[in-house]
Amino acid sequence: MLYAAVRNKAWRSFSSDARHSRLWVQSELRKSWSGSARCLRPYARYCASSIARSAKQSSTVGLPSECSVKVQPDPISGESSTPKSSIEVSAWEQIKPIRRELAITIMSTGVLALGIGAVVPVLPLFMREAAGSSNTAVGLALAAPSLTRALLNPMMGEWADRHGRKPLLIWGPLTTAASQILTGICTSIEGIMPWRLLLGAGQAVQGTGSQMLLADLTQKVPEVRARVMGTTQSSFMIGFSLGPGLSGFLVDAYGPQSAFFAVAAGCTVAGFCNGFLRETLPPEVRAAALKRLQASQSRDRLGVASDNEKQPAAGKTETLPLWGLQWAECLRKTPDINAAAVVQCASALAFGGGFTVLPLLMTEVYGATGAQLGLIFSGSALCNLAGSGIGAVVADRFGRKAVAVPALAVQAISLAAMAASPDLFTIVAFSCVRSVAGGALMPALNAFCADAVTPEERGPTLAALRTVSDLGWLVGPIMAGLLADVTSPATVLLANGMITAIACAHFQVCAQETLQKAKAAAVATDSKKHNL
Questions:
Q1: Tell me, what DSSP letter sits at residue 85?
Q2: What confidence score (pLDDT) does residue 209 get?
Q3: What is the pLDDT of residues 426-479, one digit of tens each?
Q4: Is the CB of residue 463 less than 8 Å from the CB of residue 154?
Q5: What is the DSSP string of 418-442?
Q6: What is the pTM of this model?
Q7: 121, 350, 511, 529: which one has the fewest Cβ atoms less than 10 Å from its Cβ?
Q8: In order of start, what are the domains of the chain with their CATH numbers?
Q9: Could you tell me which of 122, 233, 102 has the C-alpha nearest to residue 169?
Q10: Whose CA is closest to 95, among 223, 275, 236, 281?
Q11: What count of Cα atoms within 13 Å lies in the side-chain half-sphere of residue 448?
């Protein structure tokens, strides 16, 4: 009994203490919450007002509220601005809407480059063993695609502006695949040459469609245009570097014809994948192309130009009175495009001539072996790949000329140093330096060309620039071979250096920076769409 009484009293005391403790804890928590709420209430009001302001700005420009928008003055009028398209986000976020198209384009470009790299070392062996051709015939077969590309580029540019980019990206790889299959089953030079010309047609179709698609995709984000184009160039260089290794394995295992068939299979896959791309042709570009077509058909029916065409307005350029060269008229519309054409032609001449004489110089003068020659060209391809990435980033951040002019100057100096090199190591070192500069030049130059023209004129202009480049690749090896026979391979390198230096000086004097111009055009396009 005594134990039970003590236990009950202790339990009542413990329950009372626990109840008082619980009530005290609840009272303290309530006081703490009320004090915290009073302290956080001003901060909550500030956050709510900030969110409301961000939502209002985003509704003005049609962007998500979580994006921070940088207000800039109007680059044309200099007046204060409304937030437009200068979004402070990373390059990865800026290309988010075009990642799918970019990935497909990179893949197809890499596969086509793999095919080019795989066929270049196999073609001479195939023609020697299967067709029994001479060195002259091999040279003609190698140069044949450049001729077709130069002839078809202008037409493909106009066709793409009227019908779209996607059909070119489908039929280009399929045409290339057909040419590789037909080349592989031929046994004579007479049978091979038509299909080599067909290969150039496929490359012209694919190249035009790819370049114009990338220009369309980066129309609203010119600040990442060089990096996007540099990525496709990197894909091309990787494929071109891996191609010879693939072809060497196939030739040893199955014969020279197997390389052509493997390349055809890869091109077919690339064409199939390009079928999943979305069409990027702007409606205003299609309308401008159809207007040019109607004007051309009217002139053909009448046989004479209209009075307005006979008496061009002030500031406009007269039509070139040269048969078959009307495509070149767009190259002299602006000093920027003219300067870009000079650089395109000079670069093609220099690189085409270098590919012709460098193997001769390294083997005959400096005693390089075949294995050393292969390693040197593989190393040059890797240097070109590294330079492409560096040049693309710098061109998007500091401007196109900030990359193009120094890259041309470095190439000119490197070519002159290669011509005067005392040993093989020195010429290889300067060849790698030149490859880095050449890789940096291409994305900056491609972005410069896309910036310098309006979307309505982009198709014919970019096609004309590609034609100038292909003509350089066609003439460069021939002229380099003739000059090397008359003088020496070192003289060819020195002449290429002088040509590059002249192009560099012309570009520096005549061309204007286009990055800010492209950004202003993107801002104007966004403003026009929001006002509609």
A1: S
A2: 87
A3: 888 998 999 999 989 988 998 898 888 888 787 788 888 888 888 888 888 778
A4: yes
A5: HHT-SSHHHHHHHHHHHHHHHHHHH
A6: 0.66
A7: 529
A8: 95-301 (1.20.1250.20), 332-532 (1.20.1250.20)
A9: 102
A10: 223
A11: 32
